[in-house]
Design brief:
Oligomer: single chain
Radius of gyration: 16 Å
Number of strands: 9
């Protein structure tokens, strides 16, 4: 099955969490907490731990996010986790990875597996898509 939607970031809060022992690199590593709202065939909310090694000045870096989603996929209600990451050299998006965490589904989404992706359009619209099965 396929589900698509749009999402908005409700909060993005940097934390004090940092790698230990501290190792100096050219791109600092940071951890933030995020909350998102989803609309469309993917409808609900998520709580996210967002880790990035990112240079604000050049827009170069990589992120890794673990999300806990609660809501509906094509009308089926439940919750599950998904992970995603990507890199950028400032104007592109590459090496994208997106997967539903095996065994994480609950409610009507119990048994969910799959992949997906995220895009940000030129006008700033954030989109998500999922290709999934439910056993």
């Amino acid at each position: 099955m396929r589900a698509t939607g749009t999402f908005s970031v409700l909060s993005f809060v940097p934390t004090d969490l940092a790698p230990e022992p501290a190792i100096a690199t050219n791109v600092p590593v940071g951890v933030s907490r995020m909350e998102k709202r989803f609309e469309g065939e993917v409808a609900g909310r998520s709580a996210t731990l967002f880790t990035a090694a990112f240079d604000q000045a050049t827009g170069t870096g990589t992120y890794l996010a673990m999300e806990s989603f609660e809501g509906e996929l094509n009308g089926r209600r439940g919750a599950f986790n998904f992970v995603h990451s990507a890199s950028t050299s400032g104007t592109d998006r590459s090496n994208e990875f997106f997967a539903v965490v095996p065994g994480s589904g609950s409610g009507e989404l119990a048994g969910i597996t799959g992949t997906g992706g995220l895009t940000v359009e030129a006008d700033g619209t954030h989109r998500i898509w999922l290709e999934y099965t439910i056993d």
